[in-house]
Amino acid sequence: MATNAIDQTRRMLSLVTYLRERPGARVSDVARAFGISEDELIADLDVLPMCGTSFRGGDLLDIDTDGDRIWWHNPDDVAEPLRLAADEATALLVAARAVATLPGLREGDRQALLRATAKLEAAAGEAAGASSRVSVTFESEGGVFADVDRAIAERRRLWLRYYSPARDELTEREVDPIRLFAVGHTYVEAWCRLSEARRTFRLDRVAEIKLLDAPADPPPIELRDLSEGLVQPAAEDPEVVIEVAPGGRWVAEYYPHDSAEELPDGGLRITLRTPEPASLRRLALRLGRDGRIVSPQALADSARLASQQALAAYGG
After folding, report:
1. Inter-helix orientation angle 5-21/27-34, to 10°
2. Are 72 and 58 in contact (CB under 8 A)?
3. Per the confidence metrics, is the pTM higher than 0.70?
4. Are 235 and 273 in contact (CB under 8 A)?
5. Percent helix, strand and coil across the chain, each rounded to 5?
6. Residue 171's beta-bridge partner residues?
7. What is the Cα–Cα distance from 128 to 118, expressed in whole angstroms?
8. Which end of the chain has fewer CB within 10 Å, C or N?
9. Contact criterion met (CB below 8 Å) for 69 and 26
10. DSSP 249
11. Residue of 202, 133, 191, 120 whose CA lies nearest to 158
């Protein structure tokens, strides 16, 4: 089942209490208790050691696992009453007020956040007054995130107007969101009704978004393991062959590929797979004299035409 960011936060807070009461708990038992897979639990455990009771990086949760059991080495230290410095209280209050204004936030969550903010203001004293003079405005991506998060929570379909850099155009499509994740940028993985396939959309490329009344109904699909990165070509993706000179050998380091054969001049013949071969036109333009697309022929011709048009534009 897809999980939104707020639900994941709730789970991780509960996980802290659960692990404190069960030292050496088995990974399998904890995953079963929380109704998640062991991989999802391990992902949560990778995040928890970056959390703690100080904004300055001290007093972090010392939690680790050997893959079978989970160990928390400093539960007593973290259990001490939290004492915020003035700057910490100010930062927390500013962030809380900003999150409370996010569009798409469920009303129950908004009210709970406002109640917690009021208690913190009462405890912070003068620091609360300083924080009231500071405000944060989220960029458009924040609104998109909130709408996607709400759509996942309410299992609703989304309408997107999305910029595709591969085609350099805006497209309109309806999608059934599956999950939000971050790999450098923030993305939503969804079932696209336009292409009838799983697609990944970068939130900062969403020009417009609307929640629809239609229920989201993605087909049963296995979530991809993103530990190896976002781009993970599938065996059925089209094959592309690129030849690069010595100055273009970096392509083999940045693009997942099936093979990289050495060429006599010190270059490489790289075979890779991609669901959108047209996106490699930009790579061909970037390489210039240091590389060329060999096949498929249609893509090679398209890249050649794009380079000719670019040269003509500069010549004019």
Report:
1. 130
2. no
3. no
4. yes
5. 45, 25, 30
6. 162
7. 10
8. C
9. yes
10. T
11. 191
